[in-house]
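Progress against Task 2.4 (sequence-to-structure conversion) is shown through the following example record, which the project officer requested during the mid-term review.
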Amino acid sequence: VQLQESGPGLVKPSETLSLTCTVSGGSITTNSVVWGWIRQPPGKEPEWMGAIDASGTTYYNPSLKSRTSISRDTSKNQFTLQLSSVAPRGTAVYYCGRGSEGWSPWGQGTQVTVYS
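Structure tokens generated for the chain above:
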């Protein structure tokens, strides 16, 4: 399985960030597998943001839940992260990954910089 993140590298404060993860070599509708997002700001630990499972049920970090939405397009085997009202502290490398008794693999990550 391989995952590839895509989306804008620069976002302005208060805008909505939208990132897409394209999955190859496996289906996002596979039972007992979830697909999620984490982000890692410079010099900090990774932060789990949320996930979506095979049935389309979503799970969110409570601290981000009010601003986060994860959806999917099964026809394209993709899932998408939307984070509203981004702030400069949202500058980070964003990763998508596959979860099944542990998280692996992860995509290579995509740098997102929030600037004004």
